[in-house]
Input
Amino acid sequence: MDCLHILFNLLQALAIYVLFVKYNLHEYIPSIQDSLFRDPSAVPDTINFHFTRKTRLQTLDTDEPLHIESLDNIKLGLRLLKSAGVRKINFAGGEPFLHPHLLRNMVTFCSQLRIECVSITTDPSRVTEKFMGLNGYAVDAIAVSCDSFAEAANVKSGRANGSRLEDIKEAARICSKYFTPLVISTVVNRSNLAENMNEHLNALQPSCWKVFQNEGENGSEVTKSDADLSISDKEFEKFCKRHQHHEFFAPMSNKSDKESALTLDEYMRFKKRSGAPTRSIFNVGVAVALEDTLL
Output
């Protein structure tokens, strides 16, 4: 009887192994771990998924090869995030629209997963009728940046080639046509502090206008280059008072924004406090990778 019992257990173990191999069930182990052991309070509200580093200005002869996960791997990663309790996914880059087919598959898959909010951060010139006509139903918001409505200022800062305002107007028109909210982000600094943006905002009517203060914090990556652009709290308040009558006006705290959102790179790794990447969620699951961010 003991031999039969041992044989039965071996056959049972073999059957389980075959199922795992045949159906790739091992891929779901991190998801099961996250579901059993995750702390909901530790999961950020939003994940900014930088699935590509490629920008519209990048050439093909770049020294560093660009990495993009396969669609199957990305779907697995999105499942893991959903299982861990992530509610909002923002696709960013690089420039997301440089990979329209992949982007389309990702936003539609998020819709199938019933992610509460799916957004895309992009250059306004990349928003097209074709993409939104096919996929607008799966996109909850399009986010663009605009630090100034003066074209000369945008060209000087390297943010545009002279058509930024027209690009934003066209993006706003397309978003309105397909009932997709448009979110505009502005960083208030020394160069745009005195600018009155009310006329342009009235014309664009974004769903939300996020306004940030350039604080020039010590230790930040942009401190040296932006040192002369930082403004005081009082100066920021003065700018806000000039625009606060808009219903879509949303002054943002840099600290709270960082705490509510977390960056995920193209290898499905979060960023530690030190700036180094965590282990991939493919290998350790979302919960453990989030713990790594505290290191």
